[in-house]
Amino acid sequence: MTTGTRRRMGVEERREQLIAVALGLFSHRSPEDVSIDEVAEAAGISRPLVYHYFPGKQQLYEAALRRAAEELTARFVEPHEGPLGARLLRVMERFFDFVEEHGPGFSALMRGGPAIGSTRTSAMIDGVRQAAYEQILAHLGIPDPAPRLELVVRSWISLAETTALLWLDGGPIPRTELERQLVHDFAALAAVSAAYDARMAQVVRQILADEPSDGMFADLVGRLAALPAAALGGVPTFSAVRP
Q1: Higher pLDDT residue, 166 or 241?
Q2: 1 C-beta neighbours (distance < 10 Å), count
Q3: Which of 22, 82, 111, 140 is exposed most, by the fewest CB atoms within 10 A?
């Protein structure tokens, strides 16, 4: 008869385990509701051993947040193939996957959790937003955007965050509709800006030139065209607005 023995983990392996355990706990409950004792129990180790690797919950939270930030940043990575609308829809689907998997933690992060006063935490959040911003510009093929384009992209990223938070609060709109609406929101923001700026108009023309007749942005124009004429005074068809 043999008895099992617990394998001793190396320093980095143990740190990785604790970060994964903490991220799981923070994903399902607000960080302030999670104790070091719970982290230790979930990891199968003693409370003092947790403190051996992390001085306190703040440091552990930041490590877990860093891991979450890396994962969320990866959700915005998308091959530069096919129409922009379809690419953005896939990004939004992965974004909402993340939001759903890490609900309370995502909410606490964006609204201000226990680490809200930490410069490092704020930098990580800003880093995710900046990565998303750079990914969108890369899809547009514009590394040095004009001010109005920067405003459009950053406004859209903020809108996606706010929409996700409202959805987590139990908003009545189905997730799949919100994902599609956010893609349409990007087109709408760009179109309004194009009305004020020739460079933005060129960006919109290029987006529409690459958009198929059954694509995401064409769907938006079709929905608008289907509205009562009295509501909008008439809306041009998709074929009319394509360059």
Answers
A1: 166
A2: 2
A3: 111
